[in-house]
Structures are given as structure tokens and as C-alpha cells.
Amino acid sequence: MNYWAIGQTGRVVYKYMNSLKPNDNIQTLSRKEQVTTLRLRTQHAPLNYHLNRINPQHPPLCPLCKDQFETTDHLLLHCFNLDDLRQNLLPPTPDITNILFSTTEQLKNTSKFYHMAHGRRANAHRLLD
Ligand SMILES: [Zn+2]
């Protein structure tokens, strides 16, 4: 697993990981939740902005609001079409630390948020096709 070294954000994540490792609640999650949490921490979730960097033909925009890049931050923190899910599953003032480096319960909810958001964006894609 060599993804820590990629880009500036990757290095910031690496620093967090090191300092939190001894008590990192990621170890208490299911395998699926662990994979989701790691992908979100390292910005390697299969979202359009990341897919576009692998394949330039792939449009980088968010399928839900259509005028923002679909980055990890956009999906987790900013897309207004996910405000309802965010209210149910994320803290009142969500940021990367309190949703991805947090209690077991919050990490589980963050993982759930991601999978529900991902389902919603997949439907939006189908409508576009
Ligand atoms: Zn959006």
C-alpha cells in the first residue's frame, strides 16, 4: 500500500494516520467499512475527479449538482444534493477530521453516508445516459 506519498493531500493524511495510529478506531470496523474509510482518507474513492485523472475522457464533474468537481471533499462536505444525508449521518459542522478520524460510531455513519451518496450519484448517472 503505497498511496500515502501521492500529492500534498496524501502527505497530510499520512501525518494524521501516524499520529492517530495507536487508537485509530478504523480497526474496530468491518472490512468493507475499513476499505471505504481508507479510500476516503486517501482521496481514492472512485469519484469522477479521481477517475478523470486516470482517464481524461471521464468527466470530472459531480453528477448530482453538475457544476462542481466531484472530489472526496465535495461529496462528503459540500454537495447540496446530499444535505439531507449529511444531516442524518455526519456531525453538525462536518470536517475531514471529525468524520474520518473519529469514534467508531461516526466512522460507521461516514461509511454509510458514502455508500448512500454513491447510490444516489449512480442513479443520477443512469438518468443522464
Ligand atoms: Zn455535487
Folded structure, characterized:
With 129 residues, the protein is mostly helical. It has one domain. The protein has seven helices and no strands. The longest helix has 25 residues. The protein is globular and about 40 Å long. 23% of the residues are buried. The N terminus is likely disordered. Bound molecules: zinc ion (ZN). Zinc ion binds next to loops.
Which terms summarize this structure?
single chain; 129 residues; mainly alpha; 59% helix; 0% strand; binds zinc ion
| Biggest β-sheet description | none
Q: Which descriptor suits the 3D outline? A: globular
Q: Strand share of the residues?
A: under 5%
**Ligands:** zinc ion
Domain unit count: 1
Tell me the Rg in angstroms. Answer: 15 Å
Pick out the low-confidence regions. Answer: 1-7
SSE pattern, N- to C-terminal: HHHHHHH
Mean pLDDT: 86
Alpha-carbon distance between the termini? 35 Å
- Total helical elements: 7
Count of DSSP E strands?
0
How much helicity do the residues have?
55-70%
Q: What is the SS-derived class? A: mainly alpha
Protein name: Reverse transcriptase zinc-binding domain-containing protein
Organism: Elysia marginata
InterPro entries: RVT-Znf
Domain Reverse transcriptase zinc-binding: 32-79
Short description:
By secondary structure, the protein is mostly helical. It has 7 helices and no strands.
In terms of topology, how is this protein built?
Blueprint: H1 7-20, H2 31-41, H3 48-54, H4 72-78, H5 83-89, H6 96-100, H7 104-128
Bound molecules: zinc ion (ZN).
Organism: Elysia marginata
Domain Reverse transcriptase zinc-binding: 32-79
Protein name: Reverse transcriptase zinc-binding domain-containing protein
